[in-house]
Amino acid sequence: MKVSEYAKHLLLAGSLEDKLLPPSRQWEEETEFTSIRMEAPGRSPKFQFSDKKVKIPRLEHLNLQSNRGLSLHHFANHELMAIELFAWALLAFPDAPRSVRNGFLKTIEEEQTHLKLYLNRMRDFGIDFGDIPLNYIFWKQLGQFKTLESFSAVMSISFEGANLDYAQIYAQVFSYFGDHLTSDIMITIFEDEVKHVKRGLRAFERSIPENGNHWDHYLSLIQFPFTPRRAKGYLYLPETRSLAGMNSAFIQSLGDYQDEYTGRVNLESVKKFGLGERILRKNRLDS
Ligand SMILES: [Fe+2]
Ligand SMILES: [Fe+2]
Q1: Which ligand does the CA of 107 lie closest to?
Q2: 203-226 pLDDT per residue, tens
Q3: Distance 78 CA to ligand 2 centre (A)
Q4: How far away, in angstroms, is 263 Cα from ligand 2 center?
Q5: What's the CA gap between 98 and 100, in Å, rounded?
Q6: DSSP string of 138-196?
Q7: Is 134 helix (H, G, I), strand (E, B) or coil?
Q8: What is the CA(211)–ligand 1 centre distance, in A?
Q9: Nearest to residue 178, comparing CAs of 269, 273, 114, 271?
């Protein structure tokens, strides 16, 4: 199989089993180098995009298994979109450096692992994927994915970056409620997402003009109404961005960024759950 054929399979075949087909270890030589920009993924009827708004449960309500299941369903949807969009990028950017394309394949494989982790755990909570409407927030950004750099700025630095905050927040809250199994899943995913942000940074940084400013360059790659707000959780954990190798001035600028949504979230839960007091890591007991 060629990488492009594999990417088309992930994008166009509709079942979860298809979306979970792992990348091959060996690829046939690519012969097609024209950029293909698919407008939407193929999906079975149960997994179609929906515009219905679904509220995600409040952190204080995660003592209930059903609410944990709803939250995981929401995260699983992000993983599915990530699988599809990294496949999209393989087709859209055939000229990307080989290291970047190999990174996309590795990322796809890890997103597939994340999706499986969520699917299995959700079923323990009585929820199956597609039981609840699926938003398509990542797919809505297609218009911004003009170049490899803007794709990385939106997908990796922004969405996957924000996920570093959220994975920590949820790992800490699940653990607070005594659900260590789900908390560990969040930490496993956190560790992979650190690598994903790192990969995205590599693609982004190679496009920064000499002596250019990382933050200004990032701003030049994203388009309003998408703003840097998307690149962080409602609680920002700068230490997680250092782990991903983000430039310290960039980490600071992202922390300083404010808009009309800043401060709207009730941060009582920050106090209640002790969120952000420490960063949970894999193998934390032996470090
Ligand atoms: Fe993921
Ligand atoms: Fe990721």
Answers
A1: 2
A2: 999 999 888 999 999 999 999 999
A3: 9
A4: 27
A5: 5
A6: TGGGGGG-SSHHHHIIIIIIIIIHHHHHHHHHHHHHHHHTT-HHHHHHHHHHHHHHHHH
A7: strand
A8: 32
A9: 273
pLDDT by residue (tens digit) across 76-104?
Answer: 999 999 999 999 999 999 999 999 999 99
Residue 10: C-alpha distances to residues 102, 213, 241 (Å): 16, 36, 29
Going from the Cα of 112 to the center of ligand 2, the distance in angstroms, rounded, reads 10
Instruction: Give the Cα separation of 220 and 161 in Å (integer).
Output: 18
161 domain residue, yes or no: yes
| Closest ligand to the CA of 111 | 1
pLDDT in tens, 12-68: 999 999 999 999 999 999 988 999 999 999 999 999 999 999 999 999 999 999 999
84 Cα to the center of ligand 1, angstroms: 12
Distance 110 CA to ligand 1 centre (A): 7
Q: Report the separation in Å between the CA atom of 29 and the middle of ligand 2, taken as the mean of its atom positions.
A: 27
In a domain, 31, yes or no: no
Look at residue 35 and tell me if it is in a domain.
no
Range of the domain at 133: 3-23+44-286
Distance 210 CA to ligand 1 centre (A): 32
Assigned domain for 34 exists:
no
**In total, how many domains does the chain have?**
1
